[in-house]
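Example record

One chain of 167 residues, shown exactly as stored in the release files.
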Amino acid sequence: MTFNELTTKIQIQHTQELSAFRHNITSPPYKAGTPTQLNADRRSVRMGPVQSVEDGNANLTIVADVEGLAWFTADKGLLGSCITVSIAGHRRNTGTRVHLPLAECDAWIEAILGGSWITHVYRAGNKVAADGRLDIASYRLFLDERRNPVSKPQAVADSTLRSLAES
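Predicted structure tokens for this chain:
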């Protein structure tokens, strides 16, 4: 199955879950207040378990952590937020961890965040093994204070982040 076919299948099978999850992770991560209080909050949003579209015996759990950049970095004056999405797979019948195909993980990110934001997404962690499978897939998206996607701020010191387009 091609990447676009995977993304389309995910969007068709999980329309309602994707819509609710996307809304929960892209809404402001802060409570109303003065500029010094903005983006100092953190929350986690969970979707799943949902069935893998490539492995009928696997379920995926998708968790997003949304942090204000003031919480996420040492620069307490930095406005904006970081969305970290992690995807883990488990056998449906035993609950044991399964390795995930990279293409399906990337398709889930595309389905969650949409095409216009995908060019700003970074894959986190070590490079993928030669077989193209991951234990846990992790992605990051940085947003400015108006919730527009931006490049990784210099204050973010994570050297394992690679642009999704380049990795």
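Notes: The chain is about 25% helix and 30% strand.
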